[in-house]
Amino acid sequence: MPNPTILIVDDEQLIRWALASRLKDEGYRVLEAGTAAEALSQYREGVDLVLLDIGLPDTSGLSVLKQIKESDADTLVIMLTAQTGVQTAVEAMKLTANDFVTKPLDSERLQVAVRNGLEFGSLSREIAQLRRELSGRYSFTEIVGADSGLRETLHMLE
Predict the structure, then answer these.
(1) For labelling alongside 116, which of 50, 78, 105, 132 has CA 20 to 30 A away?
(2) Omega into 57 within 30° of 0, i.e. cis?
């Protein structure tokens, strides 16, 4: 995947700056948002992965996660939080977050989470493409024949 786009959503400007600097150095295209409203606006521009803080000033990051997943269930989201409560992590995973990283951020852990998330997304898209190709190639519509018995059998099978 050439130059994936990562959206960093965190109300702390210093954290956004640090993450953006590191991710840009690794070759990623980076977008930033400090509020939920900014995040949803930036997200609509197209991103490959979202780093999303749970604690945002205008709403919960879990609410943003839910809206993103309703818009596109395949969007990759890694939740960031200073809260270490199990309940928060469970709620994020129920909303299908791809990973959960606690603050203070361990840069190696986050790097692995981003790399794994992007790889997962790439593999998921590849599998979906292969399934589409196979379903088209081996569908009943690909069977050629004018015999009425064959047509009737295919109709029953469908």
Answers:
(1) 132
(2) no
Cα 82 from Cα 77, distance rounded (Å): 17
Residue 19: exposure state from Cβ atoms within 10 A (0-12, 13-18, ≥19): buried
Contacts of 8 (CB under 8 A, 6+ apart): 16, 19, 20, 23, 30, 31, 32, 33, 51
What's the CA angle centered on 98, arms 94 and 103, to 5 degrees? Answer: 95
Q: What is the DSSP string of 22-63?
A: HHHHTT-EEEEESSHHHHHHHHTT--SEEEEESB-SSSBHHH
pLDDT tens, residue by residue, 78-128: 999 887 667 777 777 777 888 888 888 888 888 999 999 899 888 888 888
pTM for the model stands at: 0.78
Q: How many CA atoms lie within 13 A of 3 on its CB side?
A: 6
CA distance to 1, 94, 134, 151, per residue, from 53 (Å): 25, 16, 39, 57
**How big is the chain, counted in residues?**
158
Taking 3-state DSSP, the helix, strand and coil percentages for the chain, each rounded to the nearest 5, stand at 55, 15, 30
